[in-house]
Amino acid sequence: MARFLKRNWMWLVMAATVALTGPLLARSSGETARQRSLDTLTEIMDLVQKQSPEPPTPRQLTHATIQGMLHTLDPHSNYMDESEFRLLREEQKGSFFGIGAIIQQHDQGIAIISPMKGGPAERLGVRSGDIIKEIDGTSTEGMSSNAALQKLRGEKGTIVEIALQRGGIAELLRFSIPRAEVPTNSVYYSFMLNPTTGFILIKDFGETTAEEFEKAVGNLKRQGMKQLILDLRGNGGGVLDAAIGICRQLLGPDQLIVSQKGRDGRDENQTRTSKGAMLDPFPLVILINRGSASASEIVAGAVQDHDRGLVVGQTSWGKGLVQSVLTINRSRGLALTTARYYTPSGRSIQRDYTHGLDDYYNPEDEKDAKPQGPAYKTDLGRTVYGGGGINPDYALPTLRLNEFMVDLRFRHQAFFRFAVHEKEHFGIKAGQHADEVVMGRFRAWALEQKLTLSDKDWEANLATMQEQLSIEMQNVAFGIEAGFKIQCEKNPEILKALELMPEAEALLQKKLLLRREPASTVASTH
């Protein structure tokens, strides 16, 4: 009975939402119809409060009703409560107040993956591999990473009490850590892959992203960079101005970056580079995948349409809806879709969502086939397609771990746990890979932990296990950038990007010839 009423409560909320949105959004409905809908909504909410055996709080009911209304519009219009809106603002501004540590949910608690260099946690002696058992006296058992993150963040200078479990020490270690400003840089990694190839990974787009990118490019040039790989994989977007700022650094003069059109197709707003912009002529390859969305797709689409560089990886998400973030009572927010994005060639970025949100949020594996949308032409006449995200110029299959590796890496977190053990008992050197000796110790340790490792699984997955262990060893000993550099050595997308650099150079030269860039521009920077 309770389950029946719970289902019906959700139906009542949605029914009230439909009753509210129909007259509210229809231009022909008058104030009388709108008031009738509001009265219906109020009456149903009152009935739910009085009759349901498990009545929701007014806050829960209001939140569900608003979200139900917004989701009848499109997948991305969204209402944010106080904590969600605060988190959004922190991510956009590029800093927050916390302890300065990368954390991850663990079966024993919340694991410290890596303290941030110079942050409060590192200064007080928190280490990689420590398990947070308590936060301000509250057990972390069953706590999600996001819930722990909310507890660890707070006002500047306030104290958070944490209790840590550290390998080899029976008693919990207790720390009183003052929260301090922790930068959330969008440019997550910036280093040289080889003497001439720079690598920049942008994890999201915030208010400081364009400035961070400019500094990173300048720093890599001083180290000898002649060509660049820009990694936007897993970058779900963010602030539009940040994407525009990066495009203005990559594209030539007076080039269209992105167009925005209102829902009726009118009120078009175009954003271009300045007429006096100077193209910085280094070959460029951009990496994308299904997790690349919104602002990432604007950058990749503009680069691709203007033949500024090549795009490698998997088809991007396909989020081409523009959300205007509106503040409600200073502490809450409404992200309301007000327009659509179009790339310079005129193609829509947005993927179809008319078949339901389940299909939209859980798309089938399209094996990187080009969408069945209209064809467009780049500046040099290459064919690109609209209506389904950004298709890479060179599509690579998505790499997936088999069930055996999923068990070891995620369910048992075996590589991370062993790396902590290895560091404590044998030490880890910078750049060290897991050799046969380390793999022998790992197998013995895994058997002690009662993990299932058959000879067949061991032989079939040996190379992948060695790679994962090498990455985690560097993570826990020297930080996640050190581990990521190990990962880059065999990453298929990065290896393909390096292979394609001569083609990216040829494409750039054709573009320069087409636009008749002054020779002095090339000579001064190439």
TrEMBL record:
This is S41 family peptidase. GO terms for cellular component: outer membrane-bounded periplasmic space. The keyword Thylakoid does not apply. Residues 84-167 form the PDZ domain. GO terms for biological process: proteolysis; signal transduction. SMART domains: PDZ, TSPc. It comes from the Bacteria. It comes from Candidatus Geothrix skivensis. The keyword Signal applies. InterPro entries: ClpP/crotonase-like_dom_sf (IPR029045), PDZ (IPR001478), PDZ_sf (IPR036034), Peptidase_S41A (IPR004447), Tail-specific_protease (IPR005151). GO terms for molecular function: endopeptidase activity; serine-type peptidase activity. PROSITE patterns: PDZ (PS50106). Keywords: Hydrolase, Protease, Serine protease, Signal.
